[in-house]
Each structure stands twice: as C-alpha cells, then as structure tokens.
Amino acid sequence: MTRFSTPPDLRAAIASLLDERSRRELAARVARISALFRERRRTSEAIADEDDALAYALFRLPATYAATASVLAGLSERSPAFRPRRLLDLGAGLGVASWAALQLWPDIETIVMLDRSADFLSLARRLAASGGPALARAQVVSGDMGDPPDFGEPFDLIVSSYAVTEIPDARLAEVLDAAWRNCRGALAIVEPGTPRDYARLMRARTLLVDAGAHLSAPCPHSAPCPLVAPDWCHFAVRLARSRDHKLVKGAAAPFEDEKFAYLAAARREASLAPAATRVLMRPEALKYAVRLRLCTRRGIEETAILKRDRHRFDSIKKTAWGDDVDALEEMAAGE
Ligand SMILES: C[S@@+](CC[C@H](N)C(=O)[O-])C[C@H]1O[C@@H](n2cnc3c(N)ncnc32)[C@H](O)[C@@H]1O
Hints:
The protein has helices at about 10-20, 25-40, 45, 50-60, 60-80, 95-105, 120-130, 135, 170-180, 195-210, 245-250, 310-315, 325-335; strands at about 85-90, 110-115, 140, 155-160, 185-190, 215, 235-240, 255-265, 275-280, 285, 290-295, 300-305. It is an alpha/beta fold.
C-alpha cells in the first residue's frame, strides 16, 4: 500500500501551502467540489480558482496518484527494458502522473504537462518546483487534449489520468488520435472505476487497436474484450488518509479504496508485452482453495486452486486483484 502513497516531496509541498489555511474553509470547498464531481461535472465547472485546486490536492490527489502509480508500476515491473525519457502528462491537473512516472523511471528527462485549467496548471508548476530536476524544469502547457500544440518530437510515455473521463463522447476519437500520433512508446489511460468509464475505455481500446496499437495491460491480448455487458472490469487500490484528509472529508476511516479502470497501449517497437493472465476480482479464500476469476488469452475463466495442489497454491497465494499471474499459465503449459 505504501508503495502508492504520494511521494514525500509532493506531500511536503502541499502541506506547506496548506499551512495556515482554515480547515473549515477547505472542508467547505471539498464538499462543494466533491458534490460537483459526483454529478459528473467537469473541472472547468468545479475548480474556480487556485484555492479550489489546493482543496483538490488535499482530497483527490492522493487517490488519483495511487491509481496512476499502481498502473505505471505494473508496466514497469512487467517491462524492465522500457525506460521512457520523454513524458507527456495529458490532462495533467496537478501533475500526479508526472510525479508517479518519475518515481518509477528516474531517467525521465523531459516532462510536458498539458491541461486547459489555468488554476490547476499554476499550482502544478508550484508543486513541480519541489520535485527533482526533471519536474522542476517541466513544461507546463495550456492547451486542449484534442488539439494539442506541435511538440516537435513524440513521447516515449503518455499518461492521462482521470482526464479522458471529461472528454465528451463526440470528441473521444479526436483526443485518442492526437495522443496516439504523439506517442512512440506507450499510452496509459487511467479512469474512474465506473461502468461508464470502462465502456468508454473499450471504445478507446478499439480505436487504438485499429490505429495499430498493441494492448499491454490490463488485457492479455488485443483481440476484442470477451466481457459482455453488464459485466465489466475495474481494479482498486487502497490508500492511507492523512489527518487533514480525514478532517476535510469528515471521514473516520484511516484509509480509502480507490476504484479505477485503465488501459495501456503500446507501439510494437516499445516491447511492452502483455501478461498472459489477469486477476479480475478480489481472490475468494475458501476453506480448501482460492477461487480466482481470470482474464486469459482464451477468454474469461473461473478457477479454484486447491490448497493440496501445493505447487500451484504457493505460486498464487499472495495474488491480489489486478495482478498478472503468468505462473499459472506456465504451469499449465508444462503439464
Ligand atoms: C479530474 S482532473 C484530473 C487531473 C489529474 N490528471 C489527476 O489525475 O489528478 C481532469 C483534468 O482534465 C483536464 N481536461 C479536461 N478536458 C480537457 C481538455 N479537453 N484538454 C485539456 N485538459 C482537459 C481538466 O482541466 C483537469 O485538469
């Protein structure tokens, strides 16, 4: 869990901006912004000034960071040869995707944060000044995801976290087309874990595959998704809540679970091979076995691994929702 908590430098930068702020006023902002986000209003309607952006840093950033960091960690663990140097943070907000990517790939040299919210960008710039050299010199660009400026050179990694969700259906293809054109490596899109966002990701998946992309995660293949509505796929990450976070949210629990859906697509040359098998739900512990729901190259499979099948059981007993479990496929192939 701690792997996906906000980096200490970013936490400290936010804490110093929060210093001396009235927690009551922040809580009122948090309540208003949360209500607007629950109604699916866009950032342009919810974030009215830089203090609203700061309230977002307190109550939403830890969760969007954790979800994005978990997706990027999966890519990095699976494909150690993938070492991006140029990063585009699309719909950057406060730049969480940039911070998360830099934790995993310290060799990143160039960071571009693109967004159309002046309030988010202004705070993103101030926060980035507290990061390492690549963050401190990040280019913070005001622009539209569907009609981005000419960046001169494509990016090794493009990450869009919780931003595509704000793109109207009619503009989805245009935004994806622009992102893919600017990508020479991998494109990761992280979205809220809702059926609506999953369905839109499936549309994005088709558009990207038609454009020549190969799926790297979570899907084990680039053939059509075997899930049939109302079935859908999403994941979750648990994150600790700070004292201020609990205070402004009026929450008692010391943690929260952030549900998210995602898609990572790559150019063939980027060698980001997908996993053979993905765990689609929290594994169910039975008395004599663990039951798993898996997405495999053959389709969706439900399987129970018996405790007495020691070899298999030991290989999956620590498996969590969202993990890839290629060991099972390898064992099946070896039988
Ligand atoms: C909910 S915030 C997420 C911010 C950040 N990526 C995160 O994960 O915390 C959505 C962001 O997408 C940006 N956005 C929405 N539509 C956009 C567009 N057409 N072009 C550029 N940015 C856009 C908003 O301004 C906002 O910063």
